[in-house]
UniProtKB/TrEMBL annotation:
<dbReference type="InterPro" id="IPR036249">
    <property type="entry name" value="Thioredoxin-like_sf"/>
</dbReference>
<comment type="similarity">
    <text>Belongs to the SCO1/2 family.</text>
</comment>
<dbReference type="InterPro" id="IPR003782">
    <property type="entry name" value="SCO1/SenC"/>
</dbReference>
<dbReference type="Pfam" id="PF02630">
    <property type="entry name" value="SCO1-SenC"/>
</dbReference>
<keyword id="KW-0186">Copper</keyword>
<dbReference type="InterPro" id="IPR013766">
    <property type="entry name" value="Thioredoxin_domain"/>
</dbReference>
<protein>
    <submittedName>
        <fullName>SCO family protein</fullName>
    </submittedName>
</protein>
<feature type="domain" description="Thioredoxin">
    <location>
        <begin position="44"/>
        <end position="202"/>
    </location>
</feature>
<keyword id="KW-0732">Signal</keyword>
<feature type="signal peptide">
    <location>
        <begin position="1"/>
        <end position="24"/>
    </location>
</feature>
Amino acid sequence: MKTTIKSLAASLALAASFAPGAYAGGAPDMHMHDHHMMPELMRSNVDYALPKVSLMREDGKAVSLINEMNDDGRPVILTFIYTTCTSICPIISQTLSQLQSELGSERDKVHMMSISIDPEQDTPARLRQYAKKYGAGPEWQHYTGSVAASIATQRAFDVYRGDKMNHNPVTLLRAAPGKSWLRIDGFATADDLLREYRKLEEGE
């Protein structure tokens, strides 16, 4: 049975309700500090300089991040994930899966990108399995690479937190190469992202 966003969010809320010291006589949940409840979305427009790094796509091809984001001129929707994450990443990835469905025949007009923040574990093969799990179509690609390339990319988009367990839910949207990015901090829904994507299309 597929896990829904509501059930994931409920689990997240339940986990967040426990204090870090509440594990009497037991081992702490290693993902506890991975749970960040951000009830309100924070939107900001930001200019980011893309790093000159090479990443590895889930199909095993080495690619330039700059070329992947700029060459075809499509709007980009960018997220950062890792495949063993049990809280934030499943929600983000399920949201993008739903967004694909809502875009329908327009889905090939946008480039969705998910970049791993755990490249040592997230091989292209693992990313292929992860992409399949969420029904990623050809417009939604997943990337890994060297640790240095991953960190450089995270720093460039101001999402690097030093430890994968400390990452926050962030989604970034850009209308076209050279344009500013819309940064959304928090758990944006598929409807939120579709609405923001429409605004980008209209040049708002």
